[in-house]
Amino acid sequence: MPLKIAIASSDRKVIDQHFGQAPDFLIYEIKENGNFEFIEIRKNIPPSDDPNLLENHDNALAKSADLISDCNVVLASQIGPGAVKALLSCKVKPYSIPDFLIEKALKKLASSKLVSKPIPRPIIH
Question: Of 24, 26, 39, 43, which one is least surrounded by beta carbons within 10 A?
């Protein structure tokens, strides 16, 4: 089963963006044979840029999570607890791996058992 991955990166080389500050997400797909390909860039309005941050922070996080809700995994340098909750409610597995090369992270995911097995979808109560 192929995996769709969202990545928070400022330079398209390194995972160096905080989920709540990412102006966009790079979307990749890892095929069952281990190959991966870049699919698209999705523009995001980071919750940190929201002028009503205190009032709408959770809504902004939910919008960011919804933007990548068709992905199986998100990779970011940091992911706060509110973002983790929003991502899990969209059934996206969050991974915080700061300053990791994108290509290396994708190769590691491709060699994992995640590609050959469906990712279990967490149940949020």
Answer: 43
Beta bridge partners of 27: 6, 40
CA dihedral 47, 53, 59, 63 (to 10 degrees): -20
CA distance linking residue 62 with residue 20, whole number of Å = 10
**Number of domains observed in the structure of the chain:** 1
The pair of structure tokens assigned to 34 is 């281990």
CB 47 within 8 A of CB 53: yes
Residues 1-54: tens digit of each pLDDT: 789 999 999 999 999 999 989 999 999 999 989 999 999 999 998 876 656 555
The parent domain of residue 16 ranges over 3-27+47-72+83-111
Tokens of 39: 């699919």
Does residue 35 lie within any of the structural domains?
A: no
Model pLDDT for residues 104-118, shown as the tens digit of each residue: 999 999 988 665 544
